[in-house]
Amino acid sequence: MTIKKITVYGIRLPLKQPFKIAYDTYEDIESILVKVESASGKVGWGEAVVDQHVSGETWQSARQIITRELAPLLIGKPVDSIGYFHRVAETRIRHNPSAKAALDIALHDLLARQCHVPLYSLLGGRHHTRIELPCVISMLDPEEMARQAQDACKRGYSSIKIKLGDAPELDIERIAKVREAMKPDVKLRVDANQGWSAKQALQVIRQAAPYRVDWFEQPVSIENLEALARITGSTDALIMADEPIHGVRDMLEVIRLNAADLVNIKLMKSGGLHAARTMAELGLAADIPCQIGSMVESSVATLAGAHLAMAHCNIVANDMVGPAMISDDVAVMPGNETHIELSDNPGLGVEVDDAKVQSLSVFEDRID
């Protein structure tokens, strides 16, 4: 069975409230959905959510790469052309991982639907029963972050992740206030999004010791993996790498340098599920647990990550909170705000609402 048509939709996903991290503030999310259709009428959906600070892509650049460079490679090809796609895509154009992820996810969804199996079956089979989600709190004043943390505990969250990185002294106060507001058995995780220098990171980590932080995510710049390695080697606290780790080669470099204790794998950085699964396997071999992260994606890319997280024993955490932050999504997520429960429905396991996609669309392109 071959691929007949690909449709590309540029949509704006409205957020329930602005999302502030160390390097930007988001009022809404610019997403690209791709719909890959086979000659038999089967459909697979994928998504690209770009972050120009991380991958160098923009909404419009990803659109052009998908429509002009990547999607035409798949017309007329078999629906199981995942490996082929990545080989020719890497030859065709370097980098652009979010654009590649959109088509990678759609191909996986389409193939799983063609085989009448849930996507996690193609990725190794169900390992976890369900996926517990964290509450992610935007970078705000300490009192407001504490209030939101307390509310999250009341709503049943088992872990809370807070965004930091604009001022070390204020960040320490935020950590203290949030921990004091939380239930003792709820886990606390910190993400600086590259906001600190190496010395500032070590200062914050030392002063945060009484507050039982599970791990500190990406304390320093994307450009300085050696600094991350120095921090990891200088503290007993667990350090997670995120923004510098885009694909398999970066994962190998983390292992070589002992640069982190954990790695945050994001489909939008790795180019999709194909490389992400390999990265999780490398982590398993090197005793580096992994997390599936998010660029604040809709239910489409979130579910792709959830299927990988469900299937892999080395994926021990996630921050796939996009659907909980979005006020108008394109599909109904299984589970609730605190967890995801995947069914045995084929593919991603949900049906994308075509009418909703059309209503949120800013542009639409067709390749056939």
Architecture overview:
By secondary structure, the protein is α/β, with parallel strands linked by helices. It folds into two domains: 2-117 and 352-367, Enolase-like, N-terminal domain (Enolase-like, domain 1); 121-340, Enolase-like C-terminal domain (TIM Barrel, Alpha-Beta Barrel). The protein has helices at residues 59-70, 82-92, 97-115, 119-122, 142-154, 168-181, 198-207, 225-234, 248-257, 267-270, 273-285, 299-311, 322-325, 354-360, and strands at residues 3-21, 24-38, 43-49, 131-132, 135-137, 159-163, 187-191, 213-217, 239-241, 262-265, 290-292, 315-318, 335-336, 339-340, 361-367. The strands form three sheets. An eight-stranded parallel β-sheet has the order 5-6-7-8-9-10-11-12. Helix 6 links the parallel strand 6 (159-163) and strand 7 (187-191). The longest helix is centred in the first third of the chain and has 19 residues, at 97-115. It is globular and about 60 Å long. It starts with a strand and ends with a strand. The model has no long low-confidence stretch (mean pLDDT 97).
